[in-house]
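Anyone have tokens for Aminopeptidase N? Sequence:
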Amino acid sequence: MKNTILAIGFLWTCIAFSQADQELIDVVEGEQYRAQQLQDFQTNENTASYDLLYHKLELAVDPAKHYIKGEVTTEFRALENTDTITFDLSDSLEVASVTTEEENLSFTHINNELTITFTKGICEDATQTVKIAYEGTPNKNASGEGFVTTTHNNTPSLYTLSEPYGSRDWWPCKQDLNDKIDQIDVIITAPAAYKAVSNGMVISETKDGALMTTHWQHNYPIPSYLIGIAVTDYEVFSQTVERNGHSFDIVNYVYPESKDKAEEYTKVTVEIMNLFQDLFGEYPYKDEKYGHAEFEYGGGMEHTTISFMGNFSRSLIAHELAHQWFGNKVTCGSWNDIWLNEGFATYLSGLVENHFDGEQDFINWKRGKIADITTSRNGSVYVTDDKLDNVGRIFSSRLSYNKAAMVIHMLRQKLGDAVFFQGIKNYLNDEELAYGYANTDQLKAHLEKASCQNLEEFFNDWIYGEGYPSYDVAWFQGEQNELNIKIDQSQSNRKVDFFEMNVSFLVMGAQGEEKYITIDHTTNGQEFAIAVDFEISDIIFDPKFDMISKNNTIGIDIEAVAELEIKPSIENTVNKTTFIDAKK
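Reply: yep, here.
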């Protein structure tokens, strides 16, 4: 039996969150708040009967008026023989007509569904184009999503925010996670005093008296919730990204009263963009642009090519930019897999902290994440089906953001940087996934192929399983050149019977020597002998906070030492050892 001394070096009774932590909380709370509609939404069965090819949104708006008038032209391909198709459209908007080039079509509009009937029917694989004319006063949602009119500095402002199901509040669309639109044109007519912002590139701006019509075009596949518009008295400035002989602009649309600060704060975007390109491949929309549009909201929204920003903090810039790869280029194929969007965006904000502020700040970032994750013994990264009616669970900062981010880091530690980043690049560039949808198993398959490892156990424990491990470590230096360690583990949740993990230690010498070691821990009671060519004064468990754990203990294995011929030097080592638990 060993005598374990509880660690006293890192006892945490209160975690002081950094500014970046608070900014993430603001982002998550905003996403939880605006996602309340998810609880009432059921995907229309009829929306599965066709494949969207093209949308042209022609919209007339005025930020001073909570009203929209539009014509939406949609081209689609039928996936089965049918004589009807259905769009999602709020009952607060009135449909004036639905037409093809040949005829007016009959329709019904009830229960937020617009169902269109085709006189002659449509055959499987046939393409058809319809134009829907509509107008009305969009719902004013307490969650701040959908179609929003507000003010900044007493100036009228308008924006849309559609994740997850707010698109139907301002245009007839298909809201799901299985069908991206191949191409869109967004043509906005608004008072000429304002600038109108949307996805992609500006094709033209045409002034007609007191009105300005701005034509935006986006030529990459996009889901409905990532289409957005914003209109107010924006001022515009740009930065340019130069890479491999190709350049594109980062275009910023900001309030006049914010311009000076925004110009200073957004400078960092270019370096963050290049960091992400180095790690994950070229910016997915480099043939168009990236940009920011300021809006009256806490946090941000990663609309494709144009993130809407409630502020210009570095962590928010990083989080929303990261989504252009993780969430926009490759989108989670169900809300069960939301961690594929939010976990990666969160982890990339941590990589930005490491890049700009150094390793110690990144260690502190990880420590803060672990402290939050381990406030509960329960909860999986993957959102189980029985939790899909719980918006707070889907957008849980502890699980979908922080735990997912740390699990991604643990995968990186397990696989090594070269294999990890190559596997992620392969995932992002998979022809079946790029500019489409993905699930957890598809990411796992790419990492397994890149590493030639079976990751079933890891994913079962850390993605689908719940909780975290606690370690009980006993060590002694029986010979001058050998460290002996025995490791036991318990689990916070019985849904995981054992976390097979690489466990790291920093071995510290009496004369200031240091040695970093990693042990592959696979069973309880496992013993290890490691060559160490100095007298050991201390060992620190997981010194860089690379692993989720809590309530760890570490100490001299008194019983093992007693079996040896005790020498004064060993007794002195025992007496002067400081016992440190880097996770408690």
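The first helix runs from residue 19 to 34.
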